[in-house]
Amino acid sequence: MLATTYRPVRFRWRYVRIPVAAVLMVLYFSPIYWMFKTALQPEHEISLNAMNLFTPSFTLENFARVLSEPRFFGWVKNSLILAIATMVVAVLVSTLAGYSLARLRFWAVKFLGRPFLLAYIVPSVMIVVPVFVTFAGIGWQNTYHAIIITYTSFAVPFCTWLLRAYFLTLPTELEDAALIDGCSRLGALFRVIVPLAAPGMVTAGLFSFVLAWNEFLFAFVFVFSDDMRPLSVGLMATILEAVYGSSADLSIFKVGAMFALCVLAAIPVLLVFLFLQGWLVRGLAAGAVKG
């Protein structure tokens, strides 16, 4: 008679992971769906108290109301200036800093490389007042360059850490060959290493762009005039007008128009991620190989 072997029943975690992931996905995308639905919904059908997940009719009137407001294009222009300038400066500085931390070999580089991310994890609310006082003392309040410098100071630590890890994955023999051929250290960097590090640099630029585009606190504190407001601060201004403003303000920015403004503010970031997602995945994956 053959002996019967008993195998212990193992709990299959995949049966739990899938439902949990589905619930988390629904919770994550529900506000996004609500934003798009309300932006396309007629004003008289919008109810902030009722939980209506579907609407019988759609309209573009809310988007037309936002696009007919002259201030909207000024806010978009300011956000583009701040985001693009921050992206360019942060990528340039982070490329030089990350390359130096990856290639130079002496004790100071190791000392600076490990705590470099400490500047990124400092809460911005702790330093907003000292930074504002500093810029106000030199007459830089309500200016582009004050906000760009502030945004760059938050983007550079993470981008430097990312590019340093990416540069460590590239063989040093490529630079040695370029140096033998007569290139300088900077020449080898920009002619040989930068083309190979394009995915990492695109990832760093994308992070810097999104950080500057979405940032609110420093722009809200530093900017005084309406013509200097970025889109994030302009969105808050429309909410304050709708809640505390007069009937004239309410006729411009109603609830549907505010949701349409949120959609328009999110579209550039969505488009950037849509077209550069391949570069983003390659940059993060390659930069995570070595730390």
Describe the structure.
The protein has 291 residues and is mainly α. The chain has a single domain (67-287), classed as MetI-like (MetI-like fold, Orthogonal Bundle), CATH 1.10.3720.10. Helix content is 73%, strand content 0%. The protein has helices spanning 14-39, 61-67, 70-103, 107-113, 118-121, 124-137, 144-168, 173-180, 185-196, 198-214, 217-222, 231-244, 247-252, 255-287. α3 packs across α10. The termini are far apart.
Uncertain residue segments? 246-251
Q: Indicate the percent of residues in helices.
A: over 70%
Indicate the proportion of strand residues: under 5%
Helix-and-strand structural type: mainly alpha
CA-based gyration radius:
25 Å
Order of helices and strands: HHHHHHHHHHHHHH
The CATH topology annotation reads as MetI-like fold
Q: What is the straight-line distance between the termini? A: 59 Å
The coarse silhouette is globular
- What do the pLDDT scores average to? 81
